[in-house]
Amino acid sequence: MSAAAATHGRIVQLSRIRKEIADLTKNKRAFIKEFRKCEPCRDIFQFKISGDTELYKDFVFTLTIDISLDYPFRAPFFKFSHPVFHPNVDPKSYELCSPTLLQENWKPETTMEDIILNWLVLLNEPDLSRPINFEAATDYMKDKAVYMKKFHETAKKWKSGEK
């Protein structure tokens, strides 16, 4: 690929990223609290969203999106900025494991807003066919009260700044 073609590709990519970010911030849905770029020389953004169901309505989650140079042909990398006790969240890296973000399922027409909406569905209805936190998945399936207790204990830690 020539340098001119690579430059043009990057300009198109940045244009799409800017449009998606503008759409997210301009048409801000009630669940998006903040959306900001957190590294000036890289396409890394942080945003806060609130849970939208009875179980999570009092919580504001902070997530980071790292957009690769291959976006939109490769899914962005999503992770929480704090621990979350959930079947589809890695307890060590806080990475969100969503079928939408898997390379084999990724479609270039998928937008960041689509991913955020998918995440909200996943938060409320975990994908138990591919859990990454087996303790959370077991608790969720066997005893939701125990699951919610552990979720709230973890949430108290992240709200207080503990890890």
TrEMBL record:
What are its GO biological-process terms?
Answer: protein modification by small protein conjugation
Domain UBC core as annotated: residue spans:
12-160
PROSITE patterns attached to this UniProt entry: UBC_2
Q: Which PANTHER family match?
A: UBIQUITIN-CONJUGATING ENZYME E2 (PTHR24067)
Q: What is this protein called?
A: UBIQUITIN_CONJUGAT_2 domain-containing protein
